[in-house]
Amino acid sequence: MSDTTVPVIRAVPERALPGGAAILLAVALALAVARPVLPELLVRVPDWAIPPYQDWMQALFDFIKDDLGLIHVTRAISAILEWFLDVTANLLYGKNRWPYLGPLPWTAVAAVAAVVGYAVGRWRMALLAGGTFAWIALIGQWDLAMQTLSVIAVAAPTAFMVGLILGILAWKFPRFEAALLPILAVLQTLPFFTYLLPAVIFFKVGPTAGCVATVVYAIPPMVLMTALGLKKVASEVIEAGHMSGSTRWQMLRHVYLPSARTEILVGVNQVIMLSLAMVVLTAFIGMPGLGAKLLSLMNSLKLGRSFEIGVTIVLIAVTLDRISKAWVVKQPVHFERGTPWWERNRLLLIALGAFVGCILIAQFVPLANEIDRKHELSMGSEIDTVIRAVLANETIDAATAWLRGFLTVSVLIPFRDAVLWLPSLSVIFILAAAGYAVGGPRSALLAGGFFAIVALTGWWDRAMITLYTVLSAVVIAAAVGLPLGMLAARRKKWAQPVLLICDTAQTFPSFIYLIPAIMLFGVNDVSVIFAIFIFATVPLMRYTIEGIRAVPEELLEAADMSGATRSQKLWKVQIPFALPTMAIGFNQAIMFAFFMVIIAAFIGTQDLGQELQRTLAGNQLGKNFVLGMCVALMALTFDHIIMRWSATRRKVLGV
Amino acid sequence: MSAAEPIISCRNVWKLFGQKPESFVASAKGKSFEEIRRAGYIAAVRDVSIEVGRGELLVVMGLSGSGKSTLVRCMSRLIDITDGEIIVDGQNLMSLSEKELIGLRRRKMGMVFQSFGLLPNRNVLDNVAFPLEMRGQDRHDRRERALEVIKLVGLEGREEYFPRELSGGQQQRVGIARSLAIEPDIWFLDEPFSALDPLIRREMQDEFLRLRGMLGKTIVFITHDFDEALRLADRIAIMKDGAVEQCDTPDKIVLKPATEYVRKFTEDVEKSRVVHARGLAQPINGHAVEGPAVPANATVLQLARQLVNERREYLPVADAGGKLVGAMNRQEALDILLGSA
Ligand SMILES: Nc1ncnc2c1ncn2[C@@H]1O[C@H](COP(=O)(O)OP(=O)(O)OP(=O)(O)O)[C@@H](O)[C@H]1O
Ligand SMILES: [Mg+2]
Fold first, then answer.
1. Spacing, Cα A254 to ligand 2 middle (Å)
2. Among A113, A141, A276, B176, which residue has the fewest nearby CB atoms (within 10 Å)?
3. A336 vs B160: CB contact, 8 Å cut-off?
4. In sequence order, what E strands does A141-271 have?
């Protein structure tokens, strides 16, 4: 055989359907067909057979909280966090706490942001960062945004530190890593309501709880990226460290951590973005800020103002994302010898100068300090009128009404009824069959087992509504996203801007996606599905493009030389090659959907999210946790099946 | 030139890779590389006994995967050996505690790596000063010493550059400077020049020889390149499948290969460029030697003109001090020069 560097699609004997999977599927079908004659016992787990998980969990939590005294520990942590939160709150929006210096003039903050932007990405970033803060001030949302940012300013560094330490431990101790990974996987799929309630109960209501929930939510990627980066340090760099006589601590401090810089900074980027996404959502536990405002505006259907807040959140997201990403790729550059110190620290001095300058100016020019109601440029009500006018336009109104009607009556309701009609056992067997097909008995057990647990919690019907919402939205997203992705992947010229848009859209906090949905469809099931649909289309498109663009040039040339037409090339070469990557996009779409469907609860869905949201009002930790686990288990099942399939497929393709 | 006083001595050193090699190594003794591999282990170093004298330059050669890097990493205890012992400067390397080992490296050892192993976040100065920083030298001393070695390797004026702003040859100079910063007695170099292009490589070899002359250190040098080995070596150790096939002076390796493998290995070498008059000198017992002597450190190639024009059957060989070391058979030398018929 010749030694070729081109990955070749190897012909593997395609097994039709592994026998086990076929049998499991047959059982599932038989159960479904026999539904009318099936004893009720097999259709749904009867009430008397449902173990009182909720009470057990509640008892467990109470035990940990009060008897073991965890509450004292968490109260102590609360006190520390609260102190930091008070400091940032005072500085950014003038909360009446130590150090009693704030609020900083908006010009000072914007100027420093611009210099930071310049430092990592020259004028473009300077403009973006400075411009974002200027917009926030001018539009009259300064206090709201600062409330949000003051929490991020504490939560993100905390999550960074905790994640870094856990990542180092995971890298150092494989046992610890083995124990940590499943926990992180669950954390990443747990609906955010499940973060919020324990945060409220264990930590003080208000910013502290929001901060804790945000920290916990933002930690997992930091841990993973840190461990990854540390594992990847080149062996010769490590050996050079040893030969230089480094102690263990010196190795970590001077060799491993600096060499893992890129991965760690990517982790930082993710921490910041997740913090922002979560902080916005802490509105649900009544934390003031952009999220809370947005929530109340949307509840009262003030679309113009919602839109403006949406723009603010998006601008903040893009700024934070771009700046932290620019920092990732920024490499140190040397100074010529003999450069004086003020030249070396020029940007620092400029930032300091601008900061002090702005504060001084603000003493004399009130508008440089704070933009009051009279001068703000918000056009909320005007935009509101425009939006309403556009939506009231007959064709648009007719189109959305028709779409809403069609989707509800012909697609969603039948699908939902079907899912609800199926016996639990049948669903469990279908998933077990899928598991078997991709990963043999182990995966079958895992997939079926997870759903069986959901059935045993007694929340089956609500879980199925969640599942139906997720699946319908993702199917629609796939129907739109995949063709669009394939189209965009055709030319580099098209692919690049679309990828950029997808990248940017992925940084938006999920909450944002509800704004257009509510504008177009009002408050109902269809708008939930529409929001999930936009949210989920993004990763589908992105990974489709990336998968297809990653097909090796030689393979395409080979196809051309074999006389393949464009569509043959697409179906016979590009898509098979891109499928594993596309599957990752599909998986992300489903994970996003599970996340989004829970947020949409406030619109008034009938699913697990609704129940979860209700638990927030009381202190039913047990119930909250059980509901959260139902969502997590369903998400994990899909995650396992899809990723497993993608991995085997990759191996087959030899990539 | 095997020195009287070895600074590194390896005795029956084994390094096996695989599951629980300690329990297997006893039964590995006497087995071939293949047999060991069939048992599921890789014998990266197989029963190696070798000594490096103080001030000697030992070159380790062999094909890819023959265990060169592993052997040298055993000598610096970057990896732990499976069996045998290694004595460095009178200390048993494997019995050192972590602290003693760090101490040894801080005082005595330096190493240069094939792909440089520079810290990307530090500039040249800080990379070179790194070992000094690790041993806690104060900032001022550190800087002074680092500037000194940077000058030594010819990187003056680039102190503030970061590794990615330098060419491969310059990066390797940084690696060399770093390894010299602590003034090590023992200097390990693992294919230091193989990542460089031929022109720069040549330049770096000259540079290396210059440094070597100035510093007089004990050096273990790995290379793939026989020409490089011949230019540099006092002795050459040739490895195959983890074992040292022969360890001798270049002349002896070329003239008297110990195994068929070594003979094959040296087959293509231009012998006349390798073999020195000293290597051909025989004891003067009864031969009539007269006339002017040839220098012992001249290669046969360098003596070519004289050999062809000469009439004497035996030529006296004298070292740099003018002392007679023996006599060289002219025909034997001519055979080397012209290839034996
Ligand atoms: N960490 C390791 N685990 C398992 N096997 C190893 C490890 N390190 C080296 N080996 C094996 O030991 C043998 C010797 O490797 P070594 O790197 O010493 O070879 P080398 O002579 O330096 O080769 P090269 O010229 O390619 O650098 C090889 O077969 C290699 O695959
Ligand atoms: Mg090697």
1. 25
2. A113
3. yes
4. none
Task: Tell me whether residue B199 is in a domain.
Answer: yes
Q: Tell me which DSSP letter residue A286 carries.
A: T
Residue B240 has pLDDT above 90, yes or no: yes
Judged by DSSP in three states, B240 sits in strand
* Number of domains comprising chain B: 2
Quick check: B41 contacting A, CB < 8 Å?
no
Q: How many CB pairs under 8 A join A and B?
A: 84
For residue A195, what pLDDT band results from cuts at 50, 70 and 90? confident
Exposed e or buried b for every residue in A410-431, given b needs 16+ CB within 10 A? eebeeebeebeebbbbbbbbbb
Q: How many domains does chain A have?
A: 2
Check which CATH number belongs to the domain holding B276 and give it: 3.10.580.10
CA distance A256 to chain B (A): 10
List own/partner pairs for A249-255 with CB under 8 A and 24 or more apart.
A250/B134, A252/A168, A254/B119, A254/B130, A254/B133, A254/B134, A255/B119
Domain identity same for A404 and A261:
no
Range of the domain at B258: 53-82+97-270
Domain match, A395 and A282 both: no
Please tell me whether residues B72 and B157 are part of one structural domain.
Answer: yes
* DSSP-derived secondary structure letter, A104: P
How far is the C-alpha of B44 from the C-alpha of B126, rounded, in Å?
35
In a domain, A31, yes or no: no
- Domain of residue A216, residue span: 104-330+344-369
Q: What is the pLDDT, as a whole number, of residue B4?
A: 55
User: Closest residue of B to A242, CA-based?
Assistant: B78
Among all bound ligands, the one having the nearest atom to the CA of B65 is: 1
ipTM: 0.91
Starting at the edge strand that comes first in sequence, how are the strands of the sheet with B324-329 ordered? Answer: B294-295, B314-318, B324-329
Residue B326 has pLDDT above 90, yes or no: no
Instruction: Please identify, by atom number, the ligand 1 atom nearest to the C-alpha of residue B191.
Output: 27
**The pLDDT value given to residue A87:** 93
Per residue in A551-610, pLDDT (tens digit) is 888 888 888 888 888 888 888 888 889 999 999 999 999 998 998 888 888 777 778 888
Name the DSSP letter for residue A63: I
Are B254 and B184 within one domain? yes
Residue A243 Cα, ligand 1 centroid: separation in angstroms? 19
Encode pLDDT of A37-65 as tens digits.
888 777 888 888 888 888 888 888 888 88
> What kind and span of H or E run contains B11?
strand B6-17
Closest by CA to A623, choosing from A61, A186, A45, A205, is A61
Query: What is d(CA A58, CA A434) in angstroms, rounded to the nearest whole number?
Result: 34
* Closest CA–CA distance from residue B291 to any residue of chain A (Å): 54
What is the distance between the alpha carbons of residues A93 and A122, in angstroms, rounded to a whole number? 28
Q: Roughly what angle, to the nearest 10 degrees, separates helices A261-281 and A303-329?
A: 170
Residue of B nearest to A240 (CA): B117
Q: How many CB atoms lie within 10 A of CB A406?
A: 12
CA of B67, closest atom in ligand 1: 18
When pLDDT is cut at 50, 70 and 90, the band that residue A368 belongs to is confident
Q: Which residue has the least CA distance to atom 31 on ligand 1? A: B65
Establish if A8 belongs to a structural domain: no
* Ligand 1 center to A238 CA (angstroms): 17
State the residue for tokens 């190493």.
Answer: B111
A204: domain CATH number?
Answer: 1.10.3720.10
Whether residues B101 and B245 fall in one domain? yes
Give me the percent of chain B exceeding a pLDDT of 70. Answer: 98
B69 neighbors B56 (Cβ within 8 angstroms): no
B223 ligand 1 Cβ < 6 A: no
Q: Is residue B91 part of a domain?
A: no
Residue of A245, A254, A332 lying closest to B102 (CB–CB): A245
Name the band, by pLDDT with cuts 50, 70 and 90, for residue A256: very high
Band of pLDDT at residue A253, cut at 50, 70 and 90: very high
* B73/A246 Cβ within 8 A: no
* Residues, chain B: 341
